[in-house]
Amino acid sequence: MQFGTPDGVVRAVDGVDFDLRADETLALVGESGCGKSVTALALARLVAGPGLRTSGRVELDGHDMAALSEHELRSVRGGTIAYVFQDPASSLNPVKTVGSQIGEMVRLHRRVPDVQAEVVALMQMVGLPDPANRYRAFPHEFSGGMQQRVMIAMALASQPRVLVADEPTTALDVTIQAQIFDLLAALRRRLHMGILLITHNLGLVRANAERVCVMYAGQIVESGPTERLLSHPGHPYTKGLLASVPRVGRTGRMPGIEGQVPHPARLPTGCRFHPRCKWADDRCRLEAPDLDEADEGQSVRCHYWKQLT
Fold first, then answer.
1. Mind listing the domains of the chain with CATH numbers?
2. Hey, which end of the chain has fewer CB within 10 Å, N or C?
3. Which residues, in sequence order, are bridge partners of residue 300?
4. How far apart are the C-alpha atoms of 201 and 218, rounded to whole Å?
């Protein structure tokens, strides 16, 4: 995906390649601005102009999304692929009851004999208390955690094959975060969904995802099974992210990654991480590394990952 800007053409997502299986959670992690959300929106062709897809394919059950008409896309967006975003208060309509908003999703994507009964069942499934009476409540009458459950109910109303959870618990406290992810895990198994989890929280990744892709400056720089990648990181960027995670008993200054994420219109030559990498040399500055296959399904985009492990 690229965007035309006053600073020139910005390639926000460049050569990102991954697959998502049924009944699996795949985490997409990285710093803000690395291209995670654009990648997620591109799955259902939701990137508005001046965004432009110049190459690549998005396949769903073997069908190329680019070949679908706008009419066909209506059944995919919110239907086959559903989204849950990080701020439910800004996504819910404040002047409509939560029941009517969930019901709208049911009517758009399914045919059921009793929409209200289906909405009440969805509210009960996501753990909203007293759904028969709260059906007529407005969003402001719900806590942040309850609002997020409403958003999940809306996303599940179509019985999607893929659920994209883009920072779904950022505004919630730790206890509510755990409840939301327990709920998503249970619903994933029940509905056999694939979940794409977008986050920068590696603790949530370890607890909730089977596989993980690490993004930096629009590219995937490392991917693999979660436990393997987090216990044996190969890319210097992944190592830096893991080193900066707070730990009980740690004293002194918390380590971080020096420098800043490059502006997408002014990406460095060679490896995009080399200006911030303490192991970089002339090869890193001149030659862009490929995504190299490591062990046990792990891949690393680094010239020297074998020497660093």
1. 2-209 (3.40.50.300), 224-309 (no CATH)
2. C
3. 222, 292
4. 18
